[in-house]
Amino acid sequence: MSDLQPSVEFEDQVRQAVRPPDADPEFVRRLRAELASRPARSHPRFALRPAWAFIAIMAVVIAAASLPGVAQAVRQWFAFVPGIGLVQPNAPARMLDVPAAVTRDGITLTVEHLLVYADRTELAYRVEGLAPAPAVSGGEVCSGAEMYPRLRLPDGSVLAADPMGLGGARKVSGYTAGHSFSSGIPAGVSRLTFELTCLQDAPRGAAPEEWSLELRLVAIPEGTQVGQPLTGAETAAVEQQAGTGINFDFLGGARQEDGYHFFFRFSAQDSHPDFLAARPRSMYLLDSSGARIELINARPWSPFDRVDVWEYRAVLPPASGEMTLVVDGAELFYLGQHASFVFAPGAGAPVGQTWEIGQRFNIGGRDFLVERAEKIALEGREGFQFTVAAGSAQEEISVDLIDMHSAPEYSVWSTTGDSGLAQRVTAGFVYEGGVPETLTVTFNTVSVAADGTWRLRWSAPETP
Predict the structure, then answer these.
(1) Strands (DSSP E) found in 65-120
(2) What Å distances lie between residue 177 and 144, 164, 168, 364, CA to CA?
(3) Nearest 5°: phi and psi at 113?
(4) Are residues 364 and 415 in the same domain?
(5) For burial by CB atoms within 10 Å, which of 94, 328, 360, 454 has the most?
(6) Which residues contact 90 (CB under 8 A, 6 or more apart)?
(7) What is d(CA 445, CA 333) in angstroms, rounded to the nearest whole number?
(8) Which residues, 6 or more positions from 128, have their beta carbon under 8 angstroms from its beta carbon?
(9) How many other C-beta atoms are found inside a 10 Å radius of the C-beta of residue 106?
(10) How far, in Å, are 133, 140, 147, 191, 206 from residue 202 at the CA level?
(11) H-helix or E-strand containing 373?
(12) 112 touches 100 (CB < 8 A)
């Protein structure tokens, strides 16, 4: 076991590795290469986490999602701004005067929203007219910090976007993106410049680059509604089946051009020091016709992020009328960086060779058995994958393994991906260039499935 102390840099790499839906796979792999070679730091944990236990006896508890007065207050607290997400309508001090747009070679970039708070700035923009990118083999695409916008102030100073976007979505001929900046804008500054090096995931040189737009800020007029109010919280009744120590609070929904968005709180009562986060395992709608429509996370996310309010969206429009929103199970994530082992495959091992490991670890109060290792090759790179089994045949797990101690010349590429939960899983990594003869394999994070079902009835607002 290693005495690891996670570093600050790793969380930044984790944040960069999590992208809006439909991210380019090559970009994701490159970022995973960076994050897998560095130690990690856990995100601050929830302040309140009383001891939790699974409840074996099934029970049905009907609870109001909120009392009428509280529901109305919730609707006043939050509104939805496309590309940014939830905002408190009275919190921003200034906003964009009017959307600003520029068109180059048939591609239009529009800055639609800019909200300035005392301690941060949030921005959303849209790109239209972008031809579908051809498959790129070995070529360079716009990725990483180059696809994040900047805000240049009149004095020449620049605000760089935070490493992880607020959200976004792919379109047939473009995309939308939202970004935050960890700084407000000085009160005396009303004009600034939006800058963008290149368009997200576009092959370099295939589309215009070095975008620039002049923006103007104004004070938010009294009585102005910032964003779209959430609806439905006052009528939604939550039915919970099987207590699991998880709190689910529905805040409401909003209709957008890419479907319905739903907002809720989802937190686990877990006091174990390894605990990181909980998220829904599966979430879907049953519309009035009986069709099942999947809901997906609308935000970039990693287990190191502490989420106050989740945002999920429907992948298809539901039929009109009352529908049922279902959360089926939960996934609990734990930090595993205290659990590691030395693996010495030596030199010259052929692809396909296996080694028995047989080492047990306890992470988050649960047992994990590393059964064996295998030499693998992936896209011309060689490395290792490890078979890990849950300590109990009734548990389903997922595992992310990393090599945190090989020399810098060994660039590590994770092969784990999002393989889902099972009683026995494989996880590993490959190397760019060479394979070390001895390495330290470390559990980055693990997750465990938790039973539980939450249902609520909800009716979509009438289309304006």
Answers:
(1) 79-81, 85-87, 94-96, 100-104, 107-116
(2) 14, 11, 4, 35
(3) -140, 140
(4) yes
(5) 454
(6) none
(7) 7
(8) 107, 108, 110, 171, 173, 174
(9) 12
(10) 6, 9, 9, 29, 7
(11) strand 366-378
(12) no
Beta bridge partners of 62: 239
Angle at which helices 8-17 and 25-36 pack, to 10 degrees? 170
Burial of 416 (0-12, 13-18, 19+ CB in 10 A): buried
Residues 91 and 190 placed together within one structural domain of the fold: yes
Q: How far apart are CA 212 and CA 276, in angstroms?
A: 39
User: Hey, what amino acid is at 368?
Assistant: F
Is the residue at 367 inside a domain? yes
Beta strands in 129-166 (DSSP E): 150-152, 158-160
Query: In this structure, are 159 and 38 located in the same domain?
Result: no
> Considering the entire predicted model, what is its pTM?
0.69
Tell whether 155 is covered by a domain. yes
Q: CA nearest 179: which of 190, 192, 195, 191?
A: 195
89, amino acid identity:
P
Bridge-based pairing of strands 397-403 and 439-459 is antiparallel
The whole-angstrom separation of Cα 204 and Cα 141 is: 5
User: What's the CA gap between 218 and 336, in Å, rounded?
Assistant: 47
Report how far Cα 450 is from the mean position of its chain's Cα atoms. 20
Q: Are 95 and 217 in contact (CB under 8 A)?
A: yes
User: What is the model's pLDDT at position 233?
Assistant: 64
Do both 90 and 215 map to the same domain? yes
Q: Specify the amino acid at residue 274.
A: D
Lowest mean pLDDT among 41-55, 296-310, 418-432: 41-55
Side chain identity, residue 451: D
Which residues fall within 8 angstroms of residue 73, CB to CB, at 6 or more apart? none
Question: Is 443 exposed, middle or buried, given 0-12, 13-18 or 19+ CB atoms closer than 10 A?
Answer: buried
Q: What is the rounded average pLDDT of the residues 37-43?
A: 31
Q: Are 395 and 367 in contact (CB under 8 A)?
A: no
φ, ψ dihedrals at 27, nearest 5°: -65, -45
Tokens found for residue 123: 């921005």
pLDDT of residue 417: 55
Which phi and psi angles does 46 have, rounded to 5°? -60, 145
Which residue(s) pair with 401 in the sheet? Answer: 443
What are the start-end ranges of the E strands in 404-438? 411-414, 424-432
Residue 38: both structure tokens together:
């560095």
**Rounded to whole angstroms, how far apart are CA atoms 229 and 71?**
12
Query: Within this chain, do residues 292 and 407 fall inside the same structural domain, yes or no?
Result: no
Q: Print the domain residue range for 424.
A: 8-45+336-450
Whether pLDDT at 3 is above 80? no
Q: What is the pLDDT of residues 124-137, one digit of tens each?
A: 999 999 887 555 45
In a domain, 330, yes or no: no
What CA–CA distance (Å, rounded) separates 150 from 155?
A: 14
